[in-house]
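ok so i was messing around last nite and threw this chain in just to see what happens. nothing serious, just curious
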Amino acid sequence: MTDFSIGFEASGSDAAQKALAELSAAYASVASSEADVIIALGGDGSMLRTLHGSIDRDVPVFGLNCGSVGFLLNEYRVGDLRERIGDAQEVVIHPLAMNAHTESGANLEAYAFNEVSLLRQAHQSAKLAISVDGVARIPELIADGVMVATPAGSTAYNLSAGGPIIPLDANILALTPISPFRPMRWPGALLNSSSQVRVDVLDAHNRPVSAVADSTEIRHVSSVEIRESTRKARLLFDKDEGFYERVLRLQFGR
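result:
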């Protein structure tokens, strides 16, 4: 299938802007808001921004790596773009919905395709209480923070914090501590994707905490509720280099 319109979204980096010029000269395109397929040019950060920008549209995104890591993107090359898209494997991912309550009384919502993190704002460790589906699981976690990661995000910040790599079709979320002091050896937990996690900030005035959903940061939170959203994003990967294979290779240290 090659009968579809494409639209480009590029980051501001020199590499992405050069790629945009090359692809625009080679392929007819429309505005990304009108495209059947969005081509994201940049790194994983710009890919996440594209997904957030198209979260209310049922449109697939095919990323071309013009950044450093590019785990969510495909190899950049100019030729055979339409054929690659027509043959691509589609992966559907659901973002996390974060509902954050601040000390000032505000109630704010944001979405995260990778992870929702609660992070200390000051020099002192955060003190957090964690509940899952209304059941208190950890009455006091002293740590730099804690995160809930999606399978797609399990290979990002979650992995660097010692969390597990999760296959995309596992219907599991990772609950991972960040530099825990007490309980010192708590490794985190794997939760069903239908679970609802609540984190309450203990001593929020003296030990302030921020909540971050991908790139959206909310400071001075008092509590945060996290659940999987019914919204979705559609990612396209080259048929011979699918996302499932990438995740599997990482689990074997490749």
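not much to say yet. The helical segments are 14-26, 44-53, 81-87, 157-160, 243-251.
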